[in-house]
Write a structure and sequence with these properties.
This protein is mainly alpha-helical. The chain has one domain. It has 9 helices and no strands. Helix 2 packs across helix 6, helix 3 runs antiparallel to helix 6 and helix 5 packs across helix 7. The chain is globular and about 55 Å long.
Length: 199
């Protein structure tokens, strides 16, 4: 999809890339905030029944994130739960740019209604749930939605097919390094949570 929503692709469909991407970001951030709020509210209900303090909550978050990092690094052979669907690319020619922009953004901002390739998606959901607050969950979810939406900006300079091919090749080269960076970030987050427990 990154290769479809570029200035080149939008121009070929008679659409405005800036408007489409603006709605894409709104959809992604809104979905992340809504999903995070729901998870945070559910977490609040669960925590009040269990009377959990912050320490067990941080330990649970660290354990979940470390397990996810181990799965991403292929240390643990745990398949990630995932649906087998992507956004419907037929919408690119069927609807206006703002419609597929907000719709694609919303689906990807939720994180779990399309193919999940890294455990960090579930780590964000766990963090929102364990926050025990609708407001905190919404902040966590919207941050996820904004970061996920930011990836579409990779296609911003694409004005011709040759440039699109170069961007695609660059993304393929960055696949492994970006996976390692994500794993390192997960480990750093888990260790930070454990440091807070020990403080």
């Amino acid at each position: 999809m990154l290769g479809s929503i570029t200035p080149l692709g939008e121009r070929s469909r008679g659409r405005n890339w800036t408007i489409t991407v603006g709605w894409y970001v709104v959809g992604s951030a809104s979905a992340g905030a809504a999903g995070g709020w729901v998870l945070g509210a559910l977490g609040k209900a669960a925590r009040s029944g269990l009377h959990l303090s912050i320490r067990p909550t941080l330990i649970a978050l660290a354990a979940l994130v470390l397990a996810g990092a181990a799965a991403d690094a292929r240390v643990l052979r745990i398949p990630l739960p995932s649906v087998r669907r992507q956004v419907n690319e037929d919408w690119l020619v069927r609807y206006r740019g703002w419609v597929y922009g907000v719709s694609f953004g919303f689906q990807l901002g939720l994180g779990v209604v399309t193919i999940v390739t890294v455990s960090a998606v579930y780590g964000v959901a766990a963090a929102a749930f364990l926050s025990g607050s609708g407001g905190a969950g919404a902040i966590i979810g919207s941050a996820f939605g904004l970061i996920r939406a930011g990836t579409i900006l990779v296609g911003a300079p694409v004005r011709d097919p040759d440039h699109l091919m170069r961007v695609d090749a660059r993304l393929r080269r960055w696949d492994r390094p970006s996976r390692r960076i994500a794993i390192a970030a997960e480990v750093a987050l888990a260790l930070s949570a454990l440091v807070l427990v020990l403080a």
